[in-house]
Design brief:
Arc Repressor Mutant, subunit A, 3 domains, three-stranded antiparallel beta sheet, about 65% helix, DNA binding, DNA-binding transcription factor activity, about 290 residues
Length: about 290
Amino acid sequence: MARARSMRAGDPLREESFAKELGVSRSPIRRGFALLAELGLAVKEPNRGYFLTADARGIDSGKLPLEVDPFEDFYLRVVDDVLRGDIPTTFFEAELMRKYAVPRGQLLKVLSRLANEAMVERKPGQGWEINSFLHDSKAHIQSYRFRMAIEPAALLEPGYVVDKVAFAKARTAQQQLLDGDIFKLSRSQLFQIGAQLHELIVRCSGNAFFLEAIRRQNQLRRFMAYKANVDRPRLINQCKEHIQLLDLIESGQREAAADFLRNHLDVVGRQKTEKEARDELEHQRSLEVSARR
């Protein structure tokens, strides 16, 4: 559509206009705009929406990730609605079947996946409940503070042994991000690379309890990544710090590495929770504007 309209860099992308022309709701349009932003083809400005960063006719669509998994698309649609608060804290399957016009089997697959990811849980008897963690900014801060206690402590375990092969792979992944993958990979892929690195660092401690704790945290914080738009330029510094952290560990400076990691988590945690608060405020303002129309 943007190409057909001969849209140019700086032109606004209007959800309502695209949704009306394509005959769909705003939700998939919003996800499409977010993907363009992830790919560096659009930028989101506070209280204004998305704007193209390149002429539409100059975009090579053959290089865009256009393959769509219908199940994954439905799953992400439900995730988006949960995180925006469009699904009540307690709900019944019949409500969502009507909302999305899908058969029960398809819905149960998504709910089962969300339950495995600790996003929702089945209530005794009937109904489902959304994990309160998802909408609790204080819990998000506490999550990072928990990691600040666990991950540096893992580095100081007496049985800590560096997995040289795994460390080399992690270093390569971080360098590839710096070489351009930061602006190519999806949010979920970026999250997975970061989560795997932190899990690796803890796994080398040999402490099964630490490892289980960090895996649980990675599972929960996945949805913080879903909820927040990725600030890709900021990730450049994070990748550099990840490589510096690997350097410290491999050189045997584990106490220095523990201090470095604690500070890294503190800074990143504050950045993400502050950004989430700004995004939530912007979302509420957009809802108020829509309500007045």
